[in-house]
Every structure is written in C-alpha cells, then in structure tokens.
Amino acid sequence: MADCSRIQQEIDNLSELLRELRAELQNATGAERTRILWEIRNVNRELGLKRQELRACEIGNTPRPDLVAQTVSLILDHANRKVRAAAVIRNIGIGNATGPFEIHLAATLIKGGVTTSFVQVFQVPEGVTIFGMPVLDPGIATFSTAIPGGSFPGHIFSSEYVTERMEIPLHYRNESGNAKYQFEFLVDAEQVIAEGNEGNNHFVVDWWTTSPGSFSEREPFVINDPAKTT
C-alpha cells in the first residue's frame, strides 16, 4: 500500500511557500513584483499536480468492493405456469458496497420462432450494505444472504444479495414451439459504485425445462431448432 503522507507533506510545504509569496507580493513593485507573480504561478501549478497525485494515492489505498454477477435463481410454479427469476450478486472485494444502485434483469423467451423479452430494473435500497469478504473475524461474524425486505439483527453481515423476483410465463421445451430462455443481468448498471473490477458485472445463461413427468414418458421428445426449420 502506497504511503500518501509524503505527498501530503509536499502539499503542505508548497501551501506555506504560497502564503509567503503572497505576503511578499503586497509590498513588491516593478521587477520584483513580476518575479513573485511568476513564482506564484509556478507554485500553484505544482500544487495542482501534487493534489492530483494525492487523490490518486488515496483512491488506490481505499478498499473497494468487487460486485460479481453470480447467477440467476429460478422458482418454477408449474401449477400457474410461471417462472420467478431473481439475480444473485456477491461482493468478493475488500470494501463494502452500499445502496442505492440498480440491477437490470432481462429474460428472453424464444418459442416457435417468436422472441419475447421481459425486462425489470431492481434497486438495492439506500442503506443496504453488501459487505466485502473479510468483514470480521470468521469466529465472530455470521454470514447470510441479504434479501430485499428481510430483517436481520445488527450482528449479521452478508456478502451476497438476491433481488426481488421477476415473474414471466413458463413454457416447456417438449411442447409445441420448443421453448427456451435466456436470462441476463447487469450489476450497478449506472456505475455509481467504484469497484476494483468492473469486468465481472454481467451474467448471461441459456435455459430450458420440460413439463413435469416428461422424463417418465415412453416416447422421447425431439428438440427442433426453429432457425433450421425450412
């Protein structure tokens, strides 16, 4: 970890020099005044560069979260022919991630050559924290999954978050139309969380299922690709 104190000391020294030069300027005239103004300009420029360097150093030392788009959780409601999908994310960074920020979840249904898309935006509520991995000593902290609307005691910490569920129609692969799905979601879609790694915020997966009891049927079903049907 970088030591930012050296840069801060240089900024303090330059600031003191700037105060001295401005004091001298009050009584300076002619060529002396021109020289002091030139020095003030140079010191101001150096101060600006040092402040940028300090900011970069402090950001580099700040523990950052790393939100991973982990998976999609599905609940199948065969009785009502519904799929209830939720996005699951995990913080594998050192820093904590606190809401509000958005998670965009999309489901695409392809059935009989027709594509239907479902999109829902979920927000991690303000004040909800997804903790970094080393939250506390493992013997002290209790880890669980943060679920929207859930109520947890103050000593329970979570590095995982599950959104509320998006409900879409349930179609089976062994029915007419050979239905299949693609689930996709993006964590922190508006990039309001400063993460150590922004490259693992996207998840996509293809999925399909068959009707209950289809595996016990004597006759096998054939999966046809509508794109290859002539």
Q: Can you describe what's shown?
A:
- It is built from two helices and eleven strands, in the order ααβββββββββββ.
- It folds into two domains: about 5-60; about 65-230, Immunoglobulin-like (Sandwich), CATH 2.60.40.10.
- It is rod-shaped and about 95 Å long.
- Helix 1 (about 5-25) packs antiparallel against helix 2 (about 30-60).
- The longest helix is centred in the first third of the chain and has 32 residues, at about 30-60.
- With about 230 residues, the protein is an alpha+beta fold.
- Strands 1, 2, 7, 8 and 9 form a five-stranded mixed beta sheet that branches. A four-stranded antiparallel beta sheet has the order 5-4-10-11, with no helix packed on it.
- The relative contact order is 0.16.
- A hairpin with a 4-residue loop joins strand 1 (about 65-75) and strand 2 (about 80-90).
From the N-terminal CA to the C-terminal CA, the straight-line distance is 63 Å
Poorly predicted sequence stretches spanning 5 or more consecutive residues: 135-145, 149-155, 226-230
Q: Choose one word for the global shape.
A: rod-shaped
What's the Cα radius of gyration? 29 Å
Computed structural class: alpha+beta
What is the CATH superfamily classification of the largest domain?
Answer: Immunoglobulins
Quaternary structure annotation: single chain
Share of residues in helices: 10-25%
Can you tell me the CATH architecture of the largest domain? Sandwich
Integer average pLDDT: 83
Count the helices. How many? Answer: 2
Largest sheet: 5 strands, mixed
SSE string, helices as H and strands as E: HHEEEEEEEEEEE
In total, the number of strands is: 11
Strand % is 25-35%
